[in-house]
Amino acid sequence: MKIVVTGGAGFIGGNFVHHMVNKYPDYEIINLDLLTYAGNLETLKPVEDKPNYKFIKGDIVDRPFIFDLFEKEKPDIIVNFAAETHVDRAVVDPESFVRTNVTGTTTLLDACKEYGIKRYHQVSTDEVYGDLPLDRPDLFFTEETPLHTSSPYSAAKAGADLFVLAYHRTFKLPVTISRCSNNYGPYQFPEKLIPLMLSRALANESLPVYGNGENVRDWLHVADHCEAIDLILHKGRDGEIYNVGGHNERTNLEVVKTILKALDRPESLIKYVTDRPGHDRRYAIDPAKLETELGWKPKYNFDTGIQQTIRWYLDNEDWWKRILSGEYSSYFESMYGERLQ
Ligand SMILES: NC(=O)c1ccc[n+]([C@@H]2O[C@H](COP(=O)([O-])OP(=O)(O)OC[C@H]3O[C@@H](n4cnc5c(N)ncnc54)[C@H](O)[C@@H]3O)[C@@H](O)[C@H]2O)c1
């Protein structure tokens, strides 16, 4: 089995490559990544010498390159993680999200159509469903929830999902889609909430919390997400969507306070800053279909998973400190500099 994993130098894709390379020594895993600011080959160090792993640098939007790759490699499965993923960046530059998230996806789908494929899997997000009100804890996103996007990021992800489903209906392409809630765990780029707060708290720097911090996210450990995708690839039904989530809802403020407590830092480091425009209120996934149909069960709950994650960042300072010392520091200044003054 030859699997091309796009975006395998990013957070979830990197964890997925580790999972597949280690679990399936007989599979060939090809990591195709453009190495944008979010891609980091250091994440792949633990697997880079394994005989069943190969890295190829390239752009999923580059049609001749992608077709050439399919011609040479003849992959059985594509798992598409490659995307622009940060909502704050999408507010500043929506076009780059359309380019990678939509055009990149249709380019891969066209190559699958041309060369044939056993399975195309699209890694999507619960953000395509929009948000839920804070005062209705009884409501959850199911696979039937209508798409109702709020940000240029989620709009581009929803657009991609629609193309994936259209290629299934029109061209009978064997596709699956997973829509997961917020992930946390090792190797997450330090612009996202948990590693951002961790790295700043460790440096005794102020922690920028949007609005009043009451927005709710449904957190899933990245290892549980990887396990879900593995199951969907092997047992999922063509043309189906599977929601992935572990019922671990927390407000952003609760998450930040958990981190401060674990690091023994004072809550006075919290600084409330102007909210993100269009900030989604609450995400909450109903994973019943994945659980009953494919037997998926998460191994982590948030309370144990967050402690393991904090430990990982403490033990792997080199990994994230190198990122913070590079291009990212000027991005942080442009995003939060004025808000923190
Ligand atoms: N992070 C989350 O909480 C979360 C939750 C649900 C779904 N998702 C989805 O999972 C996927 C991975 O998310 P992540 O947080 O790991 O992202 P990430 O930003 O950490 O990584 C994205 C990777 O894609 C690569 N990439 C970007 N543009 C590319 C292009 N044109 N060609 C090839 N590679 C390119 C980058 O170099 C990077 O390695 C995304 O599709 C995202 O929408 C993320």
List keywords for this structure.
single chain; 341 residues; alpha/beta; Rossmann fold; seven-stranded parallel sheet; three-stranded mixed sheet; 12 strands; 43% helix; binds nicotinamide-adenine-dinucleotide
Please explain how this structure is put together:
With 341 residues, the chain is an alpha/beta fold. It has a domain at 2-187 and 222-248 and 281-301: 3-Layer(aba) Sandwich (Rossmann fold). It is 43% helix and 17% strand. The radius of gyration is 19 Å and the shape is globular. The mean pLDDT is 95. The protein binds nicotinamide-adenine-dinucleotide (NAD).
Describe the protein's topology.
Layout: E1 2-6, H1 11-23, E2 28-33, E3 53-57, H2 63-73, E4 77-80, H3 87-92, H4 94-115, E5 119-125, H5 152-171, E6 175-180, E7 182-184, H6 193-202, E8 207-210, E9 216-221, H7 222-235, E10 240-244, E11 249-251, H8 252-263, E12 270-273, H9 288-294, H10 302-315, H11 317-324, H12 328-336
Parallel strand pairs: 1-2, 1-4, 2-3, 4-5, 5-6, 6-10, 7-9, 8-12
Antiparallel strand pairs: 9-11
Helix pairs in contact: 1-7, 2-4, 4-5, 6-8
Bound molecules: nicotinamide-adenine-dinucleotide.
Given as residue ranges, the uncertain stretches (5+ residues, pLDDT < 50) are: none
By DSSP, the count of extended strands is 12
Mean pLDDT: 95
CATH topology of the domain at 2-187 and 222-248 and 281-301: Rossmann fold
Strand content: 15-25%
CATH architecture of the domain at 2-187 and 222-248 and 281-301: 3-Layer(aba) Sandwich
Helicity level, as a percent range?
40-55%
Ligand inventory reads:
nicotinamide-adenine-dinucleotide
User: Radius of gyration, Cα only, in angstroms?
Assistant: 19 Å
* Total DSSP helices: 12
> SSE string, helix = H, strand = E?
EHEEHEHHEHEEHEEHEEHEHHHH
What gross morphology would you assign? Answer: globular
**Name of the top-level CATH class of the domain at 2-187 and 222-248 and 281-301:** Alpha Beta
CATH homologous superfamily designation of the domain at 2-187 and 222-248 and 281-301: NAD(P)-binding Rossmann-like Domain
Structural class: alpha/beta
Arrangement of strands in the largest sheet: 3-2-1-4-5-6-10
